Amino acid sequence: MLALSAEGILPKADYAIFADTGWEPRAVYDHLDRLEREIAEPAGIPVLRVTAGNIRKDALDPGHRFASMPLYILNKDGKQGMTRRQCTGEYKIKPIKKKVREILGYPHPQRIPKGVFVEQWVGISTDEFHRAKDADVRYMHNVHPLIDIDWSRDDCIRYLTSLGLADTPKSSCLGCPFHGNAQWRRIRDTSPAEWQDVVEFDAAIRKGNARANATGNALLGQAFLHRSRVPLDQAPIDHITAAEHAARHDALFDADELEHGAADGCSPWACRGDADAPAQGDFGLAS
Known about the structure:
By secondary structure, this protein is of the alpha/beta class. The protein has one domain (2-286). Helix content is 35%, strand content 11%. The protein has eleven helices and eight strands. It has helices at residues 2-6, 26-43, 55-59, 87-104, 145-148, 153-162, 181-190, 192-204, 210-214, 242-247, 255-260, and strands spanning 15-20, 47-51, 72-74, 80-82, 118-121, 140-143, 222-224, 283-286. A five-stranded mixed β-sheet has the order 2-1-8-5-6. It has a three-stranded antiparallel β-sheet with strand order 4-3-7, with no helix packed on it. A hairpin with a 5-residue loop joins strand 3 (72-74) and strand 4 (80-82).
């Protein structure tokens, strides 16, 4: 959407907002720098980077209130569960809303007058039109330009390829529990330092987040990043999941998307990682 706006195919956006959890892959930060330098700045579109802190550090800090990640839980009796997902709201949606309020000139706790709002572009394509919903506050109106111009995921991939951006990485925390096996393999096989980082984090959160442990609210079971509920460096990430097999026969995904995990990625208004989550971008465009 940023490139389409910069080229004049879509109206010029006033701002682009990137919500940084502090724990994205290095490739995502490098890509954002490139977008800002080569696309946004020449078009006169400011890229605003907002953050609520570093999610990894916060999870391991016993003195910091932590919005929980959706960790996979194995209880002592063998029953399985998941911790509640609060991270998207705390580390993505909240800082975006805070910046939008500042743009409008009504920072919290000021009341925003009726009829004052931004239009926020959400990058949902026609393949996922059912996720196109409005924001939950009056001062943000969600707009879905890709649906308006009838673009599918294939159209987006072709367009990015034409711009030399076929290698666009997926934005998500390095240690997001919603990663599929393909994404875990990609981290392990292409970035040893980042793989070591997530393996160490996985071990560190076995009893839940540090704040809960410090206040005497330790988990009764154990927490894991991988859905198999075993330590990440022992998890069966080389197993090809049913979703990956299905993707082999889905015309929407090319070979590269399959290898890198088509369903991975996280954005606050259209999270692809949790099928049950309401359609709520870590990279939003406002006008």
